[in-house]
């Protein structure tokens, strides 16, 4: 076999398919991608579109830690957390200003937590 760059990846993909089929009770191999919980190395290999290091996972929901927009079901990773589907931030998530939050209130003293009401604000007591 030629070890040049031409065709690189093809053999590795075939080997991965064979290995996957062998370790998951054989064929058929899904043409849509791997299911949640199955081994992966790239987002494009997963039906969910999210490969978290070595396994396919569901896209992340509101307030879950993220690294990039593609990690989130909403398509928006803001300050390291996924937003809601309407792109607002839920109570208890990281925020910077009131307009970030679904409730319209961001804890001004910590400048980090969306609050549902004035009673939820942390005034340093």
Arrangement of strands in the largest sheet: 1-2
- The computed structural class is little secondary structure
Oligomer: single chain
Strand content: 5-15%
Q: Please tell me the overall pLDDT.
A: 77
Helix content: 10-25%
Q: Count every beta strand, where a strand is a DSSP E run of 2 or more residues.
A: 4
Sketch the major β-sheet. 2 strands, antiparallel
Globally, the shape reads rod-shaped
Q: In words, what does this structure look like?
A:
With 125 residues, the chain is largely without helices or strands. The protein has a domain of 47 residues. It has one helix and four strands; from the N terminus they run αββββ. The longest helix is centred in the N-terminal third of the chain and has 14 residues.
């Amino acid at each position: 076999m030629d070890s040049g760059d031409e065709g690189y990846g093809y053999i590795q993909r075939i080997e991965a398919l064979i290995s996957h089929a062998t370790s998951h009770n054989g064929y058929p191999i899904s043409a849509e991608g791997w299911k949640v919980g199955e081994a992966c190395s790239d987002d494009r290999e997963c039906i969910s579109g999210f490969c978290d290091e070595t396994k396919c996972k569901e896209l992340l929901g509101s307030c879950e830690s993220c690294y990039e927009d593609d990690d989130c079901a909403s398509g928006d990773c803001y300050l390291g957390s996924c937003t809601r589907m309407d792109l607002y931030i839920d109570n208890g998530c990281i925020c910077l200003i009131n307009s970030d939050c679904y409730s319209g209130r961001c804890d001004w003293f910590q400048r980090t937590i969306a609050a549902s009401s004035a009673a939820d604000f942390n005034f340093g007591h």
